[in-house]
Amino acid sequence: MKAFIISDSHGLESELEKVIHRHREEVDILIHCGDSELEEGHSALKGVNVVKGNCDFGSDFPDDLFEKVQGVGIYVTHGHLYNVKMTHVPLSYRAEEKAAQIACFGHSHVAGAFVENGVIYINPGSIRLPRNREEKTYCICEYHKTKATVTYYDYDGKIVTDMVYHFEVN
């Protein structure tokens, strides 16, 4: 299973389309973790699973979603409803409730991935306003049987070499 994950594009349109188009044919699912600031049905979000962020006013996007892709449960939320800037505990409870193998979130604009209690947590960062790094990032997660790799890319599609994570999963 291969998932494209992006978040916090904050109104970018052509830039978002460009990044998604670059990977659309090589992944099984496209995910936007909120704060797109675009309307549902916008061409930049065609075929993308999108959740509502705290800056997505008036949107009809759901607060969260759960998808099974090739048997892998993926939970997606923006993170503001789970206080992810302070702790990951409420998010971990929700991921556990959903029986997710992967939990995707944004909100903090801080790119990173980690495993806790067998769940891979992924924040793709931001392609508009990154925090803690210069690179404007998004990522791709490849999940196969007992191994997962989360690879971060900068806006131009170059791998961010110090942000490639390898995980052993159950």
From TrEMBL:
Family assignment from sequence similarity: Belongs to the metallophosphoesterase superfamily. YfcE family.
GO MF terms held by the record: hydrolase activity; metal ion binding
Gene3D superfamilies given in the database record: 3.60.21.10
Cofactor: a divalent metal cation
Record key words, sorted: Metal-binding
Originating organism: Halalkalibacter okhensis
Descriptive protein name: Phosphoesterase
EC number(s) per entry: 3.1.4.-
Stored SUPFAM superfamilies: Metallo-dependent phosphatases
Location of the Calcineurin-like phosphoesterase domain: 1-145
InterPro entries for this protein: Calcineurin-like_PHP_lpxH, Metallo-depent_PP-like, Phosphodiesterase_MJ0936/Vps29
Pfam families listed in its UniProt record: Metallophos_2
The keyword Transcription is assigned to this record: no
